[in-house]
Write a structure and sequence with these properties.
steroid metabolism; globular; cholesterol metabolism; single chain; DNA binding; alpha+beta
């Protein structure tokens, strides 16, 4: 049994991960299984640290003033003894009239040297003049100590850059952002008066004191803690995960059955359930597999640039091939070839429910494979959220964070390729189906609007594919049934609900109404794209002159939070744009039935839930800086409402 060196409630010095800085922390608890101490910093940040990263406060006591050495051979005056055989030089005698150079006085300011430890344990430390209730004060740093010193923030190398039109050149990105700036004491004093936790500074260390390992660690962002069994269960915990595993497929089938009926009102619920044997077709399942592997082959093509993912808990960065837009173009060519050779695309419409069943079975088989393979993975390859130890919950959430077969990343591939491109392909099929079912020479204006709006959304996502590398799905969530079913079934079959609805329930709209809907969708897209582009540009280069007017709040992690521009309007302006666009997609279906608006209602619930997850993670990660941001930006998604 390991000895407990630090007790709960004890105030010690904790090393900030990825640096050599030590700060005052309070021990919260010790995990006996992982041997990790949970500590709390003064800004509210809570982290788990190894025992080697903690030191007693007594280790940081400064040496006594004026004692350069304890060696008896060196006196405090540092005077040099003369040999008895040498007298004073005649030319160097002092007289009352001669001017002498003043001797070097022992400056009281310079006696306040930083704490010196053995080289193996030597940290760079800067403590504010404060203490916990226990009364332990490390060191008071006065203005005189820093009157001539330059303070430098920790360097942050930002490599999480998003794709853009100007940068879509097929080459890996090499540029790095350096946030190093020089601040004299008056500037630092003003910032400290506003908020003592705004900046984390370190005294510029001597070259011989900097370790290569520490420099490498500073380049990595502290995004994930060491993996252990999660205690914070989401989506209703084990019971919620169990029921959602069945509720989600049932919801998809109910929606498709109701939209396929002549009467789609709520009074017609539940819909008539067809015979089970009619739901399965081997040919349909084969087409689903063919589509899946066709997209996988495109993914493996050596086209498009290779981007780095965010740092993992073990310090590695995975490589990702950014060629989603190429996949869309090649898929479009394949569909055009199918039309040229008169292949009947309406087969998808005629067997739509069977395609949904086949896609569900495919997602289930994939989820089982993912769960089985995750049992042999190391702890640092598992996601924090899906490693609870409960089979049902872990199967639903997903245990492995980045399941890969060689360089083929299963989660990243499924996130956009098969489902998103399949969504607009189904929309095109529904456009042809509307023309055939309603005997039209051209599609209706409503169908054209729905197809156009959603095509723009998909093309935008694929063009900016690199942006998903920093999303919650990729960075935080494991790959289990929730994401597999969502990517392969929910997205293509639920998101295409408006187009499917218009086939059997046409709705004619006038040009003025169509114009108003176009304006609404354009506004939503402008908010969505403007917010994401501003965030991505700031991540690539915070010092871009175009962003000079943006104000930020620095955080203890080295990142900055935007408090002006789109992100000073609401905390999640991209979510607001998403909701506006979702409404615009449903309006062409009219107001006869509520079913076409299911997507809007679902999407609002999804984004509100995701926003709540974001809030919890950001508060835990950024501490006081996030609280300041929330005070500056009061509304979460909808201004003056939520």
């Amino acid at each position: 049994m390991s000895r407990k060196r630090f007790a709960a409630g004890e105030v010690v010095m904790g090393r900030w991960p990825g640096s050599s800085l030590y700060y005052e922390v309070k021990v919260v608890s010790l995990d006996a299984s992982s041997h990790l101490y949970t500590v709390k910093y003064k800004d509210g940040t809570t982290l788990e640290l190894k025992e080697s990263d903690l030191k007693a406060i007594s280790s940081f006591k400064t040496k006594k003033k004026g004692s350069a050495s304890n060696s008896p051979s060196r006196s405090g005056s540092r005077s040099r003894s003369r040999s008895p055989g040498r007298g004073p030089s005649p030319g160097r005698r002092s007289s009352p009239g001669t001017r002498r150079s003043p001797g070097r006085r022992h400056s009281p300011d310079k006696s306040r040297s930083p704490v010196k430890l053995p080289l193996s344990d030597q940290p760079s430390i800067l403590s504010y003049s404060s203490s916990y209730q226990s009364g332990h004060i490390i060191k008071e740093i006065t203005k005189e100590d820093f009157s001539e010193m330059n303070l430098t923030p920790l360097k942050v190398r930002e490599k999480l850059r998003e794709n853009s039109i100007s940068r879509h050149n097929g080459e890996p990105e090499k540029t790095e952002d350096d946030m190093s700036q020089k601040h004299t004491w008056p500037t630092y004093d003003k910032e400290l008066e506003r908020d003592p936790v705004l900046f984390q500074y370190s005294l510029r260390p001597r070259k011989e004191e900097i370790k290569t390992k520490e420099l490498k660690q500073r380049e990595e962002k502290y995004l994930e803690k060491e993996t252990g069994h999660t205690k914070d269960l989401e989506f209703g915990g084990k019971i919620g995960a169990f029921f959602l595993t069945f509720i989600l497929p049932a919801t998809v089938f109910s929606l498709l059955l109701m939209v396929g009926q002549e009467d789609v009102s709520i009074m017609a619920f539940p819909p008539a359930i067809p015979a089970v044997e009619t739901l399965w077709d081997l040919n349909v399942f084969g087409i689903c597999l063919l589509w899946f592997f066709f997209q996988a082959m495109i993914y493996l093509l050596p086209v498009g640039k290779v981007a780095d993912g965010v740092p993992l808990s073990n310090g590695r960065r995975l490589k990702y091939r950014i060629n989603g837009f190429h996949a869309f173009l090649l898929s479009s060519v394949a569909i055009a070839v199918a039309l040229y050779f008169k292949i009947n695309l309406l087969y998808v419409y005629d067997h739509f429910l069977q395609f949904a069943v086949s896609a569900t079975i495919l997602s289930l088989l994939l989820s089982i494979y993912l769960y089985i393979r995750s049992q042999k993975k190391a702890d640092d390859e598992l996601s924090l959220g899906g490693n609870s130890g409960n089979f049902i919950y872990d199967f639903f959430i997903g245990r492995e964070l980045n399941p890969r077969i060689g360089t083929f990343d299963l989660k990243y591939f499924c996130e956009l390729r098969p489902g998103l491109i399949g969504w607009v392909t189904i929309n095109l099929v529904m456009l042809f189906a509307e023309m055939k079912v309603n005997e039209r020479d051209v599609p209706s204006l409503s169908m054209i609007l729905v197809n156009s709006f959603q095509l723009l959304y998909v093309v935008d996502a694929l063009w900016n594919e690199e942006a998903i590398l920093t999303t919650m799905d990729i960075v935080h969530d494991g790959f289990g049934f929730m994401l597999a079913f969502g990517d392969l079934v929910w997205v293509p079959f639920v998101y295409s609900l408006q187009a499917f609805y218009l086939v059997n329930h046409p709705n004619e709209i006038s040009w003025p109404v169509a114009t108003a809907v176009v304006v609404l969708n354009t506004f939503g897209y402008a908010v969505f794209r403007g917010a994401n582009s501003q965030k991505n540009a700031f991540r690539r280069n915070p010092h871009d002159p175009k962003l000079a007017n943006l104000k930020t709040i620095p955080t203890a992690t080295g990142k900055c939070l935007l408090v002006t521009g789109w992100w000073g309007f609401v905390r999640h302006p991209n979510y607001l744009g998403d909701i506006i666009m979702a409404l615009a997609w449903s309006l062409p279906c009219g107001f006869n039935h509520i079913l076409p608006y299911f997507y809007v209602m679902y999407f609002i619930c999804l984004l509100v839930h995701r926003e709540a997850r974001d809030e919890r993670q950001c508060k835990k990660k950024y501490g006081v800086a996030w609280e300041k941001y929330c005070q500056r930006v009061r509304y979460r998604i909808v201004p003056y409402l939520y």
